[in-house]
Amino acid sequence: MTCYRGDLMAIDKILVILFSLMSTGFVYWFFLMKNSKDVVAAGKSINIIVDGGYQPETISIALGSTTTLTFLRRDPSSCLEEVVLPDFKIRKFLPLNKKVNISISPKKAGEYEIVCGMNMFHGKILVK
């Protein structure tokens, strides 16, 4: 079987185009689509694991109720040793492998942030 130089270049171009399209699709999914996290409904209390971020990252709380957020930090990095809820004016130190309770009573519906002390890791509280 004889292979012409023109046929090889066409196959190479097709492979490059396919790889480029797949890479573009992956980058789009990773940075834009992947960020839609599941929302976890919290009752009177919810446990939040601090390990490379906040898990769960997004929680839902009923308006007018008091909810206790229990943080357990497993990540030894200094960035996550502090949790900040700016809208509630709360800033707490999170010792490694120890639970820290924070009670909040949102007075209005909306979206509230949970951030680390260096503002690098983020979570959300949705109040409905």
What does this structure look like?
The longest helix has 29 residues. The chain contains 1 helix and 10 strands. The protein starts with a helix and ends with a strand. The protein has 128 residues and is of the alpha/beta class. It has a 6-stranded mixed β-sheet, with no helix packed on it.
Explain the layout of strands and helices.
Layout lengths: L4 H29 L5 E3 L3 E6 L3 E2 L2 E4 L5 E7 L8 E4 L4 E4 L5 E6 L5 E7 L5 E6 L1
Parallel strand pairs: 1-4, 2-5, 4-10
Antiparallel strand pairs: 2-3, 5-8, 6-7, 6-9, 9-10
Give the uncertain stretches in residue-range form.
none
Q: Kindly estimate the percentage of residues that lie in beta strands according to DSSP.
A: 35-45%
Q: How would you state the average pLDDT, rounded?
A: 88
- Radius of gyration from the CA trace? 23 Å
Q: Termini separation (Å)?
A: 69 Å
Q: Walk across the major sheet and give the strand order.
A: 1-4-10-9-6-7
Structural class: alpha/beta
What is the string of helix and strand elements? Answer: HEEEEEEEEEE
Structure, briefly:
The chain is an alpha/beta fold and 128 residues long.
Relevant terms:
23% helix, 128 residues, 4-stranded mixed beta sheet, 10 strands, single chain, 38% strand
